[in-house]
Amino acid sequence: MNIILFVLYLIAGIAYAVHFVNRERLAGRFATTMLASATLAHTFIIGMRTMQVGHLPLVGTTGAISMFVWLLAIAYLYIETTSNERSIGTFIAPLLAGLQIIPAVTNYRVVERPPILESPWFALHVSSLLFAYASFAIACVIGITYLLLFKELKAKHLGVFYARLPSLHILDYMNTRAIAIGWLFLTVGLIVGVVWTSQEYVDGTDPRMQAMTLLDPKIFVALFCWVIYSFELYAHRAMGWTGRRIAWLSTFGFAIVLLNFLPIGYFLTSSHNF
Prior knowledge:
Number of helices: 10
Radius of gyration: 19 Å
Number of domains: 2
Helix content: over 70%
Number of strands: 0
Order of helices and strands: HHHHHHHHHH
Shape: globular
Largest sheet: none
């Protein structure tokens, strides 16, 4: 089933690219239909997996990636339907396909969660972080499109990005809104994580929980992400940073998120390997 989701997201990405280049209305509608179909299929699979094991499939890095793809697709479709703007989908859909290939090639199967993860705090912790990461992904894509459009305008060469993308002002506004929403959920996720680990550290015997410290790479980088996005919001509100500076920070921040999500999540953490 994971390979089917990958194919659907990939087809949607190709359709969005065709629409972006040729501005064909039919291609745009087909792209949205394919992405919506992929998201509905993903929803069905997540629902079946939840019924199978009795909880959301949040256990393990691969399961979290699949959930992240699903949340990002939903968030983008909401933006597209409320703004009637498909240009950002040209960059979002390939990201969805690129991440969904991980559950596809690893033949991911949902597993029973260990007793330590049965706390509702765990589900809230992971869900909040995944929604934050989805918001940061959207901010990153918007930031990249801002930089591409700015480059065209600065060179006084009004090409495809000028013709297809919203104005710099709108992109900057969308970027800061996405960052603010992501920061809120990231903050909630980190606070809930502290509450959960504090309870389990006192009451539990799982050695992975006992090994959790601020020096664990996944925890340290997650806190570093919070510092980056906190500074970005502060710089925007208090220092008047806008435009390129915010776009670059959004891109850098999400690169750190991906670093924490993939190589650190799979290979470097000693405690966050449930």
